[in-house]
Here is the input.
Amino acid sequence: MAHDWFRTVRFTPYRKGHGPTFTLRMAWTGRCDSAGRCCIAYRLTSQRRVIFEGDDYAAHLHSDESLETDDTLVEGLMGFLTLRPGDTDDEYFQKYTPAQLAFAEEHAESLSGEVAGRFQCPDCGGALRKGRCSSHGTPKECYARQSSAVHSHTTTGFCPVCITPGGGCHMAG
Here is the structure.
């Protein structure tokens, strides 16, 4: 398929030298379905080998985001591409190639974790948009709301909420 890719996202779920990297490319097909969802073409590759490719991912676009910046679009598509046996019915995987099944068994879980770490708030799981939790604001603000405590470091040098030395607490600063 020849497409004008509007977005390319690189994922590195493993430390350097400990596993492959992955690249997702997405393109606008110009089609929408009857429910108003836009059809997106996609290609997921690793080491220049295509793992998945199609033009059938239908997604609702958020009015405040464009195709080029909608992280929920990437997250949703990757959720679909990183399904593993046991996540859904066995019939879903019947049309997978041997290479796709090997990917699902060997790398889908790690890649799914990388996607979640990039696009979800680490404290509540809400969507991160431009570094802000869609539910609570910044991850720091979200953590403070979730813990229902004032998260400040005292002159003793430890965090009164998570009881971590100030330098080690992710809320420091």
The first helix runs from residue 71 to 81. Residues 5-119 form one domain.
